[in-house]
Design a protein that fits this description.
heterodimer; A: 314 residues; 12 helices; 74% helix; 0% strand; B: 318 residues; Rossmann fold; Alpha-Beta Plaits; 4-stranded antiparallel sheet; 11 helices
C-alpha cells in the first residue's frame, strides 16, 4: 500500500526558508567575501598576463579563466579548490543542525514528508551556490571586458555559460557530500571535519597518488591499458572531472582528454591547433559532466535513504 | 460513550530485535486529557512518535482520528499538534517568524496565517515578544510558543511530550493553565511526563508505563483503589455517642479506625462523605470536620513499582 499525499508538499516553503537563512547568514557573507576577493585578485593578475603575452587570440575572454601567473593560480584552479569549501560551508550542518536545535521533530510533525525537508535543503543549497556563482561569473566577465576592452564572441559567451553550469554541477557534488555527512554524523563539528578531510584527500592528494596506485595495481605492460587505468583512477575524484571538463570547454583547441594516436583516423583532416565548435568540445567532456551530475545524485540518494531510516528523537 | 480519537492495539516497537514498547493498547476519548506516565526510557516518547507516523510501527496498530499513521501520516499530522520534549525553535528568527514558517508548511494563506499567529501568541501570553528573537526566550516561553503553534494549527489532538520538565514552579502553573484552556476549546490531549504531582492535577485518565508495558490504566482514583488497596480515606471529626459503630454501618465503609480524640479514619471503596455526615447527624452527634484524602499519583506510582520490584525479587528467589 502506498502512503498518501505528495512527497513534495511543503517543498517550496522549505526552499524559500533555507535560501533566506543561507543568504542572510554571517557564515555565507564571510565565505562570499573571501571568494570575491580572491577571484578579483586572480583575475587582475590574469589580465595583466594576457595583455603582456598574447598578441592575437580569438578567445581572449576564455584566457582570463585559465591563465595563471605565479604565485596566483588561474581562476579555474582557484574555483576547483574553493567551490567545494563554499558548498561544505553551506551543507555541513543542515540536518544535524536541526537535530541539535531540536527543531527536527517539530518541523516533521507538520503535514510534510521528510522528502520535502531534505530535498528542499539540497535545492536551497544549489540555489544559493548558483546565485553566488552567477554573481561571480558576471563580475569576472564584466571586469574582463573593462580590462581587456575586447567584446567576446557568441562562441565565447556560450563556452563561458557552459563553464558556469559545470561549476554548479561540481559544487553540487560537494553539497550532496556535505549533506550526506550532516545526516550521518550527529555532531556538526564531526561532519565538517570529515567532509573537509575528504576534500583534502580528493582534491589535493588523490590526483597525485591515484596514478601510482593504478600503476602498481594493474598487472599489464600494455601502454593503453595503463593509460586507461591511470585516467580512470584519477577520475574517481570530482576535481579531475572538473578540471578535464573545464580545460576542454575553455580551450577550443583541445581535441581529446586521452592519448592522441597519430595513426588513427582521430587526426584525419584535422588542422592542429584549430578551434573546435562548441558542440564538439561539449561532446568530448559530456561524460565528465554526466559524471559530476550523477555523482551528486548518487550521494543525495544515499543521504536520502539514511535520513528516511533515521530515528527522529535526539 | 464518547468516541475515541486515539486507539492503539498491541502497539509494539523493536530496535534491532529489542522491544522498547511491548504491545500496548489504550484509547483516548474525545475531549479528555490522557497522561502517559513513567520513568525515562519507559517507551513514552517512542509511543508518541509512532502515533505521529514519525517512527515505524513494528507490530500492532494505531488509529489517530481514524487514520493510520503509517500510511496516512499527512492526514494525521494535519490534525494533530505536537510539542516535543525540550522543543526547539530557530534562534535567529523571531517568535512570529518561527510560527510563520510552520504556518506556511501547514498551508495557511497569508491573511489567515497572520490572524491565527496573532491570536495564538496573545492566548499564550507572548503578545509583547512577537518580534523578539527566540534566542532570548526562557524555557517556559519556548514551551508556550510551542503550545501557541498547536493553537495556531487548530489541532484536534495535542500531543505534549514532557511539557513541564525543566520549568520553574510558576512557569509550570502557567503552562498547565494553557493546557486546561486547550481542553476547554475541545482539544483532546495526550501528554507524557515523569513529574507526577503536577500532571495529576490536569489528567482525566493516566496510563502508567513500565519498561515498555502499560502497567495500569484508569483515572487517578481508580488506580489508587487498585494499587493502594483501600481506595478512599475519609476523616471524620465529630462528637457523639457510638459514632464509630454508626459509621461502620455506612454502606461502602470497610474499616473504621480511631485517629485521635473525636476523630475517626474511614477506609472505603468510594467517597462516603455525604453518607458519613448523614450518619453522624442521625446519631445526634456534632460534626466538626469531614475530609477526604485524594489518592496521590506519587504514592500509587511508588507503591506500584515497589510491589513490582518485590514480586520480581520473589520470583527470582524462587
Amino acid at each position: 500500500m502506498q502512503r498518501e499525499g505528495s512527497p513534495w508538499q511543503g517543498l517550496g516553503v522549505v526552499i524559500s526558508k533555507e535560501v533566506s537563512d543561507q543568504v542572510t547568514s554571517i557564515r555565507m557573507f564571510v565565505v562570499e567575501l573571501l571568494v570575491v576577493l580572491i577571484a578579483v585578485a586572480t583575475l587582475l593578475f590574469a589580465t595583466e598576463q594576457v595583455r603582456n603575452t598574447t598578441a592575437e587570440d580569438p578567445f581572449l575572454l576564455l584566457r582570463l579563466f585559465t591563465t595563471s601567473q605565479e604565485p596566483f593560480p588561474s581562476f579555474v584552479t582557484f574555483l576547483s579548490l574553493l567551490l567545494p569549501l563554499v558548498a561544505i560551508a553551506l551543507g555541513f550542518d543542515s540536518v544535524n543542525g536541526e537535530h541539535n536545535r531540536r527543531t527536527l521533530s517539530r518541523i516533521l510533525s507538520q503535514p510534510i514528508y521528510r522528502d520535502a525537508l531534505l530535498f528542499g535543503k539540497f535545492i536551497a543549497g544549489l540555489i544559493t551556490l548558483s546565485i553566488s556563482l552567477v554573481v561571480l561569473w558576471l563580475l569576472v566577465i564584466g571586469l574582463g571586458l573593462i580590462q581587456l576592452g575586447v567584446p567576446p564572441s557568441a562562441d565565447e559567451i556560450i563556452r563561458a555559460f557552459i563553464f558556469l553550469l559545470i561549476a554548479i554541477a561540481y559544487a553540487g557534488v560537494w553539497l550532496a557530500l556535505a549533506l550526506l555527512f550532516s545526516i550521518v554524523f550527529r555532531s556538526a563539528a564531526t561532519a565538517a571535519l570529515v567532509t573537509l578531510g575528504l576534500w583534502f584527500l580528493l582534491t589535493l592528494i588523490w590526483p597525485t597518488v591515484a596514478p601510482r596506485i593504478a600503476l602498481a595495481l594493474i598487472p599489464s605492460d600494455d601502454i593503453n591499458t595503463l593509460i586507461f587505468g591511470v585516467q580512470t583512477a584519477a577520475r574517481l575524484s570530482p576535481i579531475t572531472l572538473f578540471n578535464e571538463a573545464m580545460s576542454t570547454i575553455l580551450d577550443p583547441s583541445a581535441r581529446t582528454l586521452g592519448p592522441i594516436y597519430l595513426y588513427l583516423p582521430q587526426l584525419q583532416g584535422a588542422v592542429l591547433g584549430a578551434p573546435l565548435p562548441v558542440g564538439q568540445s561539449l561532446l568530448i567532456v559530456w561524460p565528465q559532466i554526466v559524471g559530476l551530475v550523477s555523482g551528486s545524485i548518487l550521494l543525495f540518494v544515499i543521504g536520502y535513504i539514511v535520513f528516511q531510516r533515521q530515528e527522529v528523537r535526539a | 460513550m464518547s468516541e475515541n480519537v486515539i486507539e492503539t492495539q498491541n502497539l509494539t516497537k523493536r530496535y534491532n530485535g529489542t522491544a522498547v514498547v511491548k504491545g500496548i493498547s489504550f484509547n483516548v476519548a474525545r475531549g479528555e486529557i490522557f497522561g502517559l506516565l513513567g520513568p525515562n526510557g519507559a517507551g513514552k516518547t517512542t509511543t508518541i512518535l509512532m502515533l505521529l507516523g514519525l517512527s515505524d510501527i513494528s507490530d500492532g496498530q494505531a488509529r489517530v482520528l481514524g487514520y493510520d499513521p503509517v500510511r496516512e501520516p499527512l492526514a494525521v499530522k494535519r490534525r494533530v499538534g505536537y510539542l516535543p520534549d525540550q522543543v526547539g525553535f530557530y534562534d535567529n528568527l523571531s517568535a512570529a517568524d518561527n510560527m510563520r514558517y510552520t504556518a506556511r508548511l501547514i498551508g495557511l494563506d497569508r491573511a489567515e496565517r497572520e490572524r491565527r499567529i496573532h491570536d495564538a501568541l496573545v492566548h499564550v501570553g507572548l503578545a509583547d515578544v512577537v518580534d523578539k528573537r527566540v534566542q532570548t526566550f526562557s524555557r517556559g516561553m519556548r514551551q508556550r510558543l510551542g503550545l501557541a503553534e498547536i493553537l495556531m494549527k487548530d489541532a484536534q489532538i495535542a500531543i505534549l511530550d514532557e511539557p513541564t520538565s525543566g520549568l520553574d514552579p510558576q512557569a509550570t502553573i502557567e503552562l498547565l493553565e494553557v493546557i486546561r484552556q486547550l481542553k476547554h476549546r475541545g482539544v483532546s490531549i495526550l501528554l507524557s511526563s515523569h513529574l507526577l504531582e503536577r500532571v495529576q492535577s490536569v489528567c482525566d485518565r493516566v496510563a502508567l508505563f513500565n519498561e515498555g508495558n502499560i502497567a495500569l490504566i484508569g483515572t487517578v482514583a481508580e488506580l489508587g483503589r487498585q494499587v493502594l488497596g483501600g481506595g478512599f480515606n475519609v476523616e471524620v471529626e465529630a462528637e457523639g455517642q457510638g459514632l464509630a459503630e454508626r459509621l461502620a454501618q455506612v454502606p461502602g465503609v470497610q474499616k473504621v479506625e480511631p485517629a485521635g480524640p473525636s476523630r475517626w479514619r474511614l477506609t472505603s471503596d468510594r467517597d462516603v462523605r455525604p453518607e458519613a455526615a448523614a450518619a453522624v447527624v442521625a446519631a445526634g452527634g456534632r460534626l466538626f470536620r469531614l475530609s477526604v484524602e485524594e489518592p496521590s499519583l506519587e504514592a500509587i506510582y511508588t507503591r506500584y513499582f515497589q510491589n513490582a520490584a518485590s514480586q520480581a525479587g520473589e520470583r527470582h528467589a524462587a
